[in-house]
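Researcher: Quick test of sequence recovery. Tokens follow.
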């Protein structure tokens, strides 16, 4: 029943398009240009609506960073003021891990106290998540060592301590109307899976035969098209010969298949009911 509602909304969107996806933008904050990511999104974790506002706020820490009180302080500040924009977390940007905040605070608060300042409440470590399979980031968890001729769309965020099986535990996205509206997927298609191919640089290409296009912001042919997964884990998982409804994002004229996207078994009655 809920899947029928989702398809109904999808068909409505064919004639009533809405804004597509949360926009990513190039990092323009000087302090953060040396970080292992170069795209961010606003508002940030401090509720600054623009990078211009974020620049004015982060400047107050430049002298503290210059003291070298903590090697992770710049990373922590940039993860708060210019959070990584990734397709997997378009609407829920990744926060720095609590341990990163604690390392920065423990190294720098003694210097701040010399000038009668304490660690700011807006950067309270207790408000940040403890590491749990990629829900937060730390400098050690970002992999940037890839071949020079292959540039990833976004940094690959992994735990250096987790096994392949742990990294590939896909989160099940429930097919509810609230999920659909919150995610604001930029393409929705009915397709049959033809093949799943693994590349050499932490990516997977899933080839599907598009049978119907329910929503899209770019031309999608009714033929075989590739879906790119910018990770060594295919989430949601797909197998050849599956007939499915796919809701996900378009990125730089590519169709993506990412953790947090929605894949459901296609049912013929939905097609007859809503076409």
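Model:
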């Amino acid at each position: 029943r809920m899947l029928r509602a989702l398809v109904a909304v999808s068909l409505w969107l064919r004639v009533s398009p809405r804004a597509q996806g949360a926009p990513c933008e190039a990092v323009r904050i000087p302090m953060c240009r040396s970080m292992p990511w170069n795209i961010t999104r606003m508002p940030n974790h401090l509720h600054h609506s623009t990078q211009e506002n974020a620049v004015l706020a982060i400047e107050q820490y430049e002298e503290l960073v210059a003291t070298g009180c903590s090697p992770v302080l710049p990373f922590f500040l940039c993860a708060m003021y210019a959070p990584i924009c990734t397709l997997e977390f378009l609407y829920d940007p990744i926060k720095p891990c609590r341990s990163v905040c604690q390392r920065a605070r423990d190294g720098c608060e003694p210097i701040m106290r010399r000038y009668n300042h304490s660690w700011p409440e807006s950067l309270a470590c207790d408000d940040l998540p403890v590491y749990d399979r990629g829900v937060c980031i730390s400098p050690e968890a970002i992999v940037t060592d890839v071949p020079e001729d292959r540039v990833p769309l976004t940094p690959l965020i992994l735990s250096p301590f987790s096994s392949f099986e742990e990294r590939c535990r896909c989160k099940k996205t429930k097919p509810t109307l609230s999920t659909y509206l919150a995610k604001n997927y930029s393409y929705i298609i009915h397709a049959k899976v033809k093949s799943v191919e693994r590349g050499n640089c932490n990516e997977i290409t899933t080839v599907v035969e598009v049978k119907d296009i329910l929503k899209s912001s770019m031309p999608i042919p009714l033929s075989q098209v590739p879906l790119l997964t910018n990770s060594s884990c295919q989430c949601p998982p797909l197998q050849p010969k599956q007939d499915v409804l796919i809701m996900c994002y378009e990125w730089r004229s590519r169709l993506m298949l990412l953790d947090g996207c929605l894949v459901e078994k296609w049912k013929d009655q939905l097609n007859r009911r809503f076409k």
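The two ends are 16 Å apart (CA to CA).
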